[in-house]
From TrEMBL, chain A:
InterPro entries: FTHF_cligase-like_sf, LUD_dom, NagB/RpiA_transferase-like. Residues 8-204 form the LUD domain. It comes from the Bacteria. This is Lactate utilization protein. PANTHER family: LACTATE UTILIZATION PROTEIN C. The lineage of its organism: Bacteria, Pseudomonadati, Thermodesulfobacteriota, Desulfovibrionia, Desulfovibrionales. It holds the Pfam family LUD_dom. Transmembrane segments: none annotated.
TrEMBL record, chain B:
NCBIfam families: quin_L_LdhH. InterPro entries: 4Fe4S_Fe-S-bd (IPR017896), 4Fe4S_Fe_S_CS (IPR017900), Cys_rich_dom (IPR004017), FTHF_cligase-like_sf (IPR024185), Helical_ferredxn (IPR009051), LUD_dom (IPR003741), LutB/LldF (IPR004452), NagB/RpiA_transferase-like (IPR037171). Gene3D superfamilies: Alpha-helical ferredoxin, NagB/RpiA/CoA transferase-like. Residues 303-333 form the 4Fe-4S ferredoxin-type domain. It comes from Solidesulfovibrio aerotolerans. GO terms for biological process: lactate metabolic process. Keywords: 4Fe-4S, Electron transport, Iron, Iron-sulfur, Metal-binding, Repeat, Transport. The keyword tRNA processing does not apply. GO terms for molecular function: 4 iron, 4 sulfur cluster binding; metal ion binding; oxidoreductase activity. This is 4Fe-4S dicluster domain-containing protein.
Length: 207, 719
C-alpha cells in the first residue's frame, strides 16, 4: 500500500522540525507505542530536563514533586483509555486524566488527540478547551499526539472554515509544529524550553 | 536603547558598538546565514506575491481600524473577554495595573510583547509593587540584565553563552556550565515555578481577529501557552494595528512571518484564544480575560497618507537582519525600542523627536530593508521623510540649508565646482586625488582617498565628442549626474562610445541639467529637492526623447522612482514626472536590453574582473542581470564576489556624517573583492567607484575600479 501524499508530506515536514512521526494501524497499536515510549524512557529524565544542573532552592523543590512515571491522557476516546489503562497497570505506569495543576513539576508523557494535521508545515492541530489537555501537552517531557490520517489537510487555508466555526464560542486551539524550541542564546538551537522536549505524532491509518 | 542627545554623542556610542567584537561576529554570522535560510524557507513560494497580498490586506484593515475595533469588541465580549482601548502608552499601563489590582494580583508572568516594550510596561508595574517575570528566554535574560532587546525576535542576540552562564550563575547562586543546552534547561526549571505562582499572565498578540474576537500568538518556546493557561488572569496587549478582519488575514501572515524573521517555516506554536476559556483557579472556573489595544498615535498615523504603511509592519525584524548598519552596531544603537529600519521610523512616532533625531540620520538608503520587508513598506523613503519632518520642526542645520540653496541653483553650483577645480591644485599634487586635505574640513575622512575634480567637465567636452547621426532611430538624452559630469567625465565618454557603436542612436546632452537631487533628499532638504527635480524635468523635455539614459545607478533610481513621490500632491507635476520616469533607464539595461549589444561586438584578451552591485541598481532599479551579462559578453572572466549586493558604505552624505561606519562597510567590501582573486572590478555607479577606488588607493592595493561602460568601450571591435 502506498502512503497518501498528504501523510507523506506531513511526515517529511514534521521530521524536519525534530518531531517523531510513526504510522499506526489501530488505536491499540498507538497505545502500545505510548506505553513503550514511557517504559523506554529513562527512569528519571533528569539529563534531558535539567535536574542535573545546579538550581536555586525553589526550582530544586519543584523537581522533587515528580517521583513516578506518569502519563496524562485527558479526553482520549474510551476504548483507547481501556487499552492504555491495561497496559499501564501491567507496566507499573501511573495513568491520569486530570489533576495536572498538581503535577506542574513535570510528567513523562502527555497524550492527546489531534483534531487535524497540516501537511505543508508538518503541524498538528490540538483543540484544547480543557485545561488538562493544554497542560498535559505543555508540561509533559514528551507530547504524543494521535492524528487520524483522514484529518490531514494540505495547508492552513484548507482548515479555515473549521477554525472559524470553533472560534464562534470560547475556544483555545493550537497549531503545534515540533517540540518547543529556542535559539535565543547565540542562535544555537535547543529543544525543550518551556514545553515538551519531544513531540511524537502517531498517524492513525483510516479504517 | 539609543538615547544620545547630540549627533556627536551618538557617534561616540556607535564607535563603542564597533568595538564590541562578540556582537560584530554574531551579527555577521547571522546576516550571512539568514540570507540562505530565508531563501530556503521560501523555496517554492512566490514571496513577492505573498508580500503584495499581505500589504494589500493590511491596507484594507488600516482604513477601517475603528470598525474593526468595534467588531472585535462585540465578539470578544460576547465570549467573555473585556476589551479596552488605550489612547497612550501610560493609559495602557494604567489599565493593566488596574486590572491587576482589581484581581488581587501579586505576581505576573509575561510572554514576549514588543508593544509592552513600547509602553515600558514592566517599569510601570514594578513601580506599583508587582513582581513581573519575562518568560521568553531572551527576554528573561535581558530583563535580568536590565537592558532592552537588540532584535525584535531574538532579543539577546548581542550576548554570548559566557555572559548568559555568568548571569545564570548569579541568579541561581550556583556555578553554571558554559553549555547552551544546559543553560536553556536551567531557564526551564527556574521559570516553571514563576508560571505556577503567577496570578496574572500578560501576552502580546500577533493577530486580533475582528470576525470572532480571537487573538493569535506565535511563539517557539511554549511560554505563550503557559502564560495564557496557568495564571487566573490573562491580559493581552496589542497595538491597534494588529486588528484584521478575518482569520484568513492572520493565516496569510503566518505563511510569511517566521520565514521572513529567521527562515523558519512556522513557529512551534500558533495559539488561538477566543474569549474566557476554562481555568481551574479562575472565578467560576473561568479565566479573567482582557485585551488592551494601544493607540499611542496609531489612529492618527492611519490617516496620514504617507505614513499609514508603517502600520503594515508585522514585527518580523527582517529589516534589521539585512541592514548593513544594524550588522555593525547592533540593536541597542540602532533603535530606541523598535529596532532596524522600522525602528528609525517608528521611534519618531512612538517615542518622540528627541529619541529619533540622531537615529534617523543613520541610514545609507541602500534599500535592503525595503527589498525584504514582509509587508512591502517603503522604509528608505519613510526614513528620509521622518528626517525631513524633524528638520522642518526643529529648523534645518545651516550647512544643510546652504547645500540646498547651492544645489537648486545650477549656475551657482557649477560655477563653484569649476572654481574648486582651480583651488584644488595645491592639494592634488598633480594626481587625480585630493592628497593634502585640509583636515578641519574633512575630519575622519582619511579612510579613503577623495577624487579631484576633472580638468574638463563632460558638459564642456560634449560638443567635441558628440557622435553625428544621420539616420536617427532612437533619440536618447544623456543624464550625467554631478559626479560623472565633473569628476569622472571619462565614464560618460566611454558610455557614449559604446552606445554610438550601434547605428541610429542619436544622443543629446541637455545642458540645463543639474544634480538629480538625491543628496538633498539624503539631507532632509525636501523643498529644495522638489525645486531641483522640477528644474531637471524642464531642462530635459521628456517628450523629445525615447530614453533618458544615465550611467549613475543612484541618479537612475531617483529619477525613475523618487521624482514621482516628490510631487504626489500635485497631479500635473505627477503626470510630468511619470512621463519623465517612464523614459529613464540605466546604462547596462539600455545597452544590453534595448541596443542588444552582444558577444559579436567585442574582442580582447582574457581578463578576470569582479563586480559590485550598486544598491540603487540591484534594488532601486531591480537590475541584476544586464551588467553581469555584458561583462561576460565582452569576453571578460567575471568572478562573482561574496555579498556583491551589500552596500559599499558610500551613501552620499552618509559617508561624511558617519565616517566610522562607512569605513567599516568599505573594509568588508574591499576584502570580498580581493578574495575573488581578480584585480579589477566593474560597477554601474560613480559614487560606488569613488568610495571603492578611494579605499584601494588609500590602502595602496593595486586594484582597477571602473564603470562597466569603460570595460565595454575598450573591448569594442573597431569597425
Amino acid at each position: 500500500m502506498t502512503t497518501p501524499p498528504l501523510v507523506e508530506q506531513l511526515t517529511q515536514k514534521a521530521s524536519l522540525v525534530s518531531a517523531v512521526v510513526r504510522p499506526v494501524a489501530s488505536m491499540d497499536e498507538a497505545m502500545a507505542y505510548v506505553a513503550d515510549v514511557c517504559l523506554g524512557k529513562e527512569a528519571c529524565q533528569i539529563l534531558a530536563s535539567g535536574c542535573d544542573a545546579p538550581l536555586s532552592d525553589t526550582a530544586e523543590a519543584l523537581c522533587q514533586t515528580k517521583q513516578e512515571k506518569i502519563i496524562c491522557a485527558p479526553e482520549m476516546p474510551a476504548e483507547a483509555m481501556a487499552t492504555l489503562t491495561a497496559l499501564c497497570d501491567e507496566k507499573g505506569i501511573s495513568l491520569i486524566t486530570s489533576g495536572m495543576r498538581s503535577r506542574l513539576g513535570g510528567i513523562d508523557i502527555g497524550l492527546t488527540m489531534a483534531v487535524a494535521g497540516i501537511a505543508e508545515t508538518g503541524t498538528v492541530v490540538v483543540r484544547s478547551m480543557s485545561e488538562e489537555v493544554r497542560l498535559a501537552s505543555m508540561v509533559a517531557e514528551i507530547h504524543i499526539a494521535v492524528l487520524p490520517a483522514s484529518t490531514i489537510v494540505a495547508d492552513s487555508y484548507a482548515l479555515e472554515p473549521q477554525l472559524v466555526a470553533w472560534m464562534g464560542q470560547p475556544d483555545y486551539t493550537a497549531f503545534v509544529t515540533g517540540p518547543s524550541r529556542t535559539a535565543d542564546i547565540e542562535r544555537v538551537l535547543a529543544l525543550g524550553v518551556h514545553g515538551p522536549l519531544e513531540l511524537h505524532i502517531l498517524i492513525l491509518e483510516d479504517k | 536603547m539609543q538615547d544620545a542627545t547630540t549627533l556627536k554623542a551618538y557617534r561616540a556610542q556607535l564607535r563603542d558598538a564597533l568595538d564590541n567584537d562578540f556582537q560584530r561576529q554574531a551579527l555577521d554570522k547571522f546576516a550571512v546565514a539568514y540570507r540562505a535560510s530565508r531563501a530556503n524557507a521560501f523555496a517554492g513560494i512566490d514571496a513577492p506575491e505573498l508580500i503584495a497580498e499581505i500589504a494589500a490586506a493590511k491596507d484594507v484593515a488600516i482604513d477601517q481600524l475603528e470598525e474593526l475595533f468595534a467588531e472585535f469588541k462585540r465578539h470578544a465580549e460576547a465570549a467573555g473577554t473585556k476589551v479596552h482601548l488605550a489612547a497612550t502608552a501610560h493609559e495602557a499601563n494604567e489599565i493593566i495595573a488596574r486590572i491587576a489590582k482589581e484581581n488581587g494580583v501579586k505576581t505576573i508572568v509575561k510572554s514576549k510583547s514588543m508593544t509592552a516594550e513600547e509602553t515600558h510596561l514592566n517599569d510601570h508595574l514594578e513601580g506599583q509593587g508587582f513582581e513581573v517575570t519575562e518568560t521568553d528566554l531572551g527576554e528573561w535574560i535581558i530583563q535580568l540584565r536590565h537592558e532592552g532587546p537588540t532584535h525584535m525576535v531574538m532579543p539577546a542576540i548581542h550576548l554570548s553563552r559566557y555572559q548568559v552562564a555568568d548571569l545564570f550563575s548569579e541568579v541561581t547562586n550556583q556555578k553554571q556550565e558554559v553549555d547552551i543546552q544546559k543553560l536553556v534547561k536551567v531557564a526551564r526549571r527556574e521559570l516553571r515555578p514563576k508560571f505556577c505562582q503567577a496570578d496574572m499572565g500578560i501576552s502580546g498578540a500577533n493577530f486580533a481577529i475582528a470576525a470572532t474576537g480571537t487573538i493569535g500568538i506565535i511563539t517557539n518556546e511554549g511560554n505563550g501557552r503557559l502564560t495564557t493557561t496557568l495564571p487566573r488572569v490573562h491580559v493581552a496587549l496589542a497595538g491597534i494595528d494588529k486588528l484584521m478582519p478575518s482569520l484568513h488575514d492572520a493565516l496569510r501572515i503566518i505563511r510569511c512571518l517566521p520565514k521572513n524573521a529567521t527562515g523558519q517555516a512556522i513557529t512551534s506554536y500558533v495559539t488561538w484564544v477566543t474569549g474566557a476559556v476554562p481555568c481551574e483557579v479562575g472565578p467560576e472556573g473561568k479565566k479573567v480575560k482582557h485585551v488592551v489595544f494601544l493607540d499611542n498615535g496609531r489612529m492618527a498615523m492611519a490617516k496620514d497618507p504617507e505614513f499609514k504603511q508603517v502600520l503594515r509592519c508585522i514585527r518580523c525584524g527582517a529589516c534589521a537582519n539585512v541592514c548593513p548598519i544594524y550588522r555593525l552596531v547592533g540593536g541597542h544603537k540602532y533603535g530606541h525600542v523598535y529596532i532596524g529600519a522600522i525602528g528609525l521610523v517608528a521611534t519618531y512616532f512612538f517615542h518622540g523627536r528627541e529619541k529619533a533625531k540622531n537615529l534617523v540620520q543613520n541610514c545609507l538608503n541602500c534599500g535592503a530593508c525595503k527589498a525584504v520587508c514582509a509587508a512591502g513598506i517603503d522604509l528608505p523613503t519613510l526614513i528620509k521623510e521622518v528626517h525631513a519632518r524633524i528638520q522642518d520642526e526643529e529648523g534645518h542645520p545651516a550647512y544643510s540649508t546652504a547645500v540646498g540653496q547651492v544645489l537648486k541653483n545650477r549656475t551657482l553650483f557649477h560655477t563653484m565646482l569649476k572654481s574648486a577645480r582651480l583651488l584644488q591644485k595645491p592639494i592634488t599634487g598633480g594626481t587625480p586625488y585630493l592628497r593634502h586635505l585640509p583636515m578641519f574640513l574633512f575630519k575622519d575622512q582619511e579612510f579613503r582617498a577623495l577624487p579631484a575634480i576633472a580638468d574638463e567637465a563632460f558638459r564642456d567636452r560634449w560638443e567635441k565628442i558628440k557622435p553625428r547621426v544621420t539616420d536617427a532611430k532612437l533619440k536618447v538624452a544623456l543624464f550625467s549626474g554631478c559626479v560623472q559630469d565633473f569628476i569622472y567625465p571619462e565614464q560618460m565618454e566611454a558610455a557614449v562610445t559604446v552606445m554610438a557603436s550601434k547605428k541610429g542612436v542619436a544622443m543629446e546632452f541637455p545642458k540645463g541639467q543639474s544634480c538629480c537631487g538625491l543628496p538633498l533628499l539624503m539631507m532632509g532638504e525636501k523643498k529644495a529637492g522638489r525645486e531641483l527635480a522640477a528644474h531637471n524635468m524642464n531642462a530635459i523635455d521628456a517628450q523629445d526623447f525615447d530614453y533618458i539614459v544615465t550611467m549613475c545607478a543612484s541618479c537612475a533610481s531617483y529619477l525613475k522612482h523618487g521624482y514621482k513621490r516628490l510631487f504626489a500632491d500635485d497631479p500635473a507635476m505627477t503626470y510630468k514626472a511619470s512621463q519623465f520616469a517612464h523614459r529613464v533607464i540605466d546604462f547596462s539595461s539600455f545597452v544590453h536590453d534595448v541596443l542588444g549589444i552582444s558577444e559579436a561586438d567585442f574582442a580582447g584578451p582574457d581578463k578576470k574582473v569582479t563586480y559590485h552591485a550598486p544598491c540603487h541598481l540591484c534594488r532601486g532599479m531591480g537590475v541584476t542581470e544586464a551588467p553581469r551579462a555584458l561583462l561576460r559578453e565582452a569576453g571578460l572572466d567575471y568572478l562573482p564576489a561574496e555579498e556583491e549586493d551589500v552596500c559599499c558604505g558610500f551613501g552620499g552624505s552618509f559617508s561624511v556624517k558617519f565616517p566610522e561606519l562607512s569605513k567599516e562597510l568599505l573594509g568588508k567590501k574591499l576584502a570580498n573583492l580581493k578574495a575573488t582573486g581578480a584585480t579589477a572590478m566593474a560597477t554601474d555607479c560613480p559614487g560606488c567607484i569613488m568610495q571603492i577606488r578611494g579605499g584601494f588607493e588609500q590602502e595602496k592595493t593595486p586594484f582597477e575600479v571602473r564603470h562597466v561602460a569603460e570595460y565595454l568601450a575598450e573591448r569594442l571591435k573597431r569597425k
